[in-house]
Amino acid sequence: MILAALAALLASGAAQTHFTRALELRHAGNTLEALRELQLAVKADAGLAEAHREIGLILLERRDFAEASAAFRRAVERNPEDFQTRYNLALSLANAGRPDSGLQELEAILKARPDWGLAWFGVGHVHARAGHMGDAEAAYRKALALDATLVRAHFELGKLLEEKGNRSGAIEALTAGVKLAPDSTAARFRLATLLRQAGRREESQREFEAVRQLRDRRQRGEQAALAYQQGMRYLESGDAAAAVRELRRAVANRPDFPESRAALAEAYERNGDIAAAIAEFRKALELAPSARTANHVGVLLAKMGRMQEAVAAFRRALEIEPGHANAARNLDQALALQGRR
After folding, report:
1. CA distances from 81 to 24, 59, 108, 245, 318 (A)
2. Are 1 and 93 part of one and the same domain?
3. Which pairs count as long-range contacts for 305-313, CB under 8 Å and 24+ apart, including other chains?
4. Of 48, 79, 110, which residue is a domain's last?
5. Which residue in 98, 99, 14, 24 sits closest to 48, CA to CA?
6. What CATH number has the domain bearing residue 63?
7. In angstroms, rounded to a whole number, what is the distance separating the alpha carbons of residues 120 and 64?
8. pLDDT in tens, 195-224
9. C-alpha torsion sign, points 8, 10, 13, 15
10. How far apart are CA 282 and CA 200, in angstroms?
């Protein structure tokens, strides 16, 4: 019995190691390797509900609804109180062509949580897929009565009302959704079209212009991401001048990305342009306060002999993170050099 308990303990530890590694890989965007690690985790410990859940989520992203529902089912069997996973199971079943099974799962959830707006949205989604538009509309409205922040419920209700010929109702629903999610180009385009059809041309033009700006912003974001990746490759290879060129392009496309600003600052520093590095690090700090960055700015300023500014930078680091040991030590040293202690 002792040996069996020890074996179970070791299996559980191995499963947790694989699970942790899977989460890291998934966060890094490597879903294929993450899925392999999750499969090793459940092989080591079939009772690890969270591993089955994560497998289901990856398969759901791939739109493999049948396999996703099987993984969610295993997770729910091991943890019936995980209602979010039960919800994912219900919608996966419906999307896999089993709407009745999906509704059964949602009804079971609503017995336990009758006021959960998301579950009512799920009921609406399943009915809409089955062509039961009256039931779908009622469920969407119930969902929104319980939780007016459900963006998808506003959008899906708008689409449904548009299909029914209720243009004013569709505009009202889509407008409410856009207020909650102003970056949704699809919803704003649909809203703009409906407004134009309703003769509300000025409002329609504003929405079409918002769509154009969003698409332009997204395109610039993609260009910024490519330039950032190339700049980081140059940094890793030691070509700081080339890194500066690419990272400046990244920042020009999306000046609101703190990661690009910080990387450009590092490239300037490696290229020997300390003043430019400080300027970019400060801009990165405005976008995303970081004690580590503020402390580094202080170090660079101190190297340039700008002690008063260095002291301010170290103090800023300690404001962001009061227990930052390096900043505290550097502040003491900077004050000592100024003779203020």
Report:
1. 26, 22, 11, 53, 42
2. yes
3. 307/334, 307/337, 307/338, 308/338, 310/334, 311/335, 311/338
4. 110
5. 14
6. 1.25.40.10
7. 23
8. 999 999 999 999 999 999 999 999 998 999
9. negative
10. 45
CA distances from 104 to 89, 108, 110, 111, 162 (A): 11, 6, 10, 11, 28
**pLDDT digits over 132-170, tens only?**
999 999 999 999 999 999 999 999 999 999 999 999 999
Interhelix angle 117-129/151-163, nearest 10 degrees: 30
Q: Which amino acid is at 102?
A: G
Q: Using CA atoms, how far apart are residues 149 and 330, in angstroms rounded to an integer?
A: 47
- What range defines the domain where residue 333 resides? 289-341
Task: Give the pLDDT score at 233.
Answer: 93
Please tell me whether residues 18 and 67 are part of one structural domain: yes
What's the burial of 17, exposed, middle or buried (CB within 10 Å: 0-12/13-18/19+)? middle
